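Issue 218. Parser rejects a valid record. Input:
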Amino acid sequence: MQRNILLVGSDMNAYYMARCCHEKYGEAVDVIATEPIRFTQFSSIVNIEYHDDLKTPGGFVHALVEYGKAHLSQGKTLLIPCHDIYVRLLAENTDALSPYFVYNIPSLRIVDTFLVKEKFYKTYENSGLDFARTLYYDCSAKETAPIPSDIYFPLIIKPSNAIEYGRHKFAGQPKVFKATTPDNAVAFIDKVKAAGYRDTLLVQEFIPGDDSRLFDAVFYCTKNGKAELASFAQIGLQEHGPTAIGNCTVLINGFNQFGNTEETVNKLKAFLESIHYTGFAEFDLKYDERTKTFKVMEINPRQARSSYYLAALGHNLVGYLVEDVFDGIERDFVLLEKKILLSMVPKSVIRKYIFNEEFKKEALTLWKSHRKVDPLNYKKDKSFKHRFYLILRAINYKKKYKLYKNTI
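Output the parser choked on:
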């Protein structure tokens, strides 16, 4: 490999970033992770080692410093975090890690405002971005305040601090909860409090529409804060299981039934550059028919689980990082407008569970013309166990969508 690269994480994000490395250099890439996850566990394109304390500050710094020292003869290693936890840990420990690594991530101040959702909405409420109406419930309060009578149902309830929320498990714990009445909204808040979560819950008006009102926009901003790359993709389907709601399974880049793509992308670009954002950012948006606007649900301070489609369009994500942080190469800004279908599910799931007929027709047309990609289905990954896992995964998707027919 021309440049030494280390990925941190073992989920789908880590797999397709490893794929980007393999596509660029033809070699397996080193990965450090907390635990085996099937996305990467059996893959032939990673050299992976596990540290069970990697999600702690001490364990994270120790594992990375040891790796960095061992590879310093090759120069500094490009470090790519593939999960929110690792982005935050890297942002918090740059002084200890910078002698051994180069990277391009947002500042700790920005990471903090993106990952803690209460801070996110309050910090950027006057930024020019569009948001749904949001209320804040302090879970350290003894009594749960009633839901205001002037808010429209249904409501979406989600944690301000997803990392902290994940540490306080309870039966049937959803990633996001959809409340249909004031009573079940308060009951859910009380259940979260009883599990020990003491941060804030966001109670947000639901934007009408099915999965095909959702959009994905990915940006790359250089270490100097200049946006160089953007995508804008309409989502057709997301995960329907309660622990994975919000994760995209089908999208089409360059397809938008509602218009104003360039105007919206320019607004998001201006926002990122105004806060001097650096690294990858992924916007989760939903089109609001009532206001004719794309409302921002959240911004992830990293590439997301579905972001491989940019590489499939000829813009290798690892390549952007390497040429920026090592070589100082600057590019003109480009919005990727070419159509491509990203699908993590079988064709039968698209046919049966996408109800937007125009989107479905476009998706099946792209599939038929071989303009389709699955981030996990990489022909040069020679692991039989990985291939077998993909077969089982496709079967399981058919079962999951049959079981979980409703989304938020």
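Fixed in the parser; the record now loads. The chain has a mean pLDDT of 94.
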